[in-house]
Amino acid sequence: MREFDVIVAYEDPLKRLGIKAMLEAPKDLKFNLYDEIRDLEQLRKVIVSLQPDFIVIDATLNADQSGIQLAEYTRRHSPRTKIVMMTFSLDEQLVQTLQDLEIKWVVFKAESVENIKKCAWRAIHNQPYISKVFRDDWYQDLVPVALKPNEYLRKTLSKTEIKVLNQVALGNTNKQIAEYLFKSEKTIKNHRHNICKKLNISGSNALFKYTMKLKDVFH
């Protein structure tokens, strides 16, 4: 059985109970939760001594910057710990701070139970998880735009298909596209098939070649 030590740095007792319930694991996994620690100084000591696998932090802990400071402290004193940040909003400054701290797991506080479980699963497997409501803000400066959709593409393809097409234009594999869009490789393959069908193109590399021929391809 695989065991994981998890610190929950959250003031709201109901939210802590909710997180605890959400981390009910399959039989082959066990989460050791440390969720009763309130004092920040005590939290810091436990982080240093325990070197936990995960820490779940409320970005607005103590209604100030304590959550961010705790994340910074964790990164310095327990670098192997995976930090999961929970927040209601994500402005440009917070995005930059979290990216500077190399935090890969950002969860909307009102996220569904199923999606928080998905976040836990992805964290265990070292795969990033950014709640859907934050993804556009999170990735806007990280992912280059290789393809500027023209009017024909906007009318013919869905928004998700345009995102897939942009990833194809960047030369990314189905696996890389799936990780970026938080979908399965099978779903990405289906999207590519539908795009080709809508654009009336065929062939293993036809989609990439198509993006290279578009007048609006740049960079």
Automatic annotation (TrEMBL):
Chain ranges of the HTH luxR-type domain: 150-215
One of the GO BP terms on file: phosphorelay signal transduction system
Location of 4-aspartylphosphate modifications: D58
Protein name: LuxR family two component transcriptional regulator
Matching Pfam families: GerE, Response_reg
Source species, domain of life: Bacteria
All copies of domain Response regulatory, residue ranges: 5-124
Keywords: DNA-binding, Phosphoprotein
DNA-binding among keywords: yes
Keyword match DNA damage: no
One GO MF term: DNA binding
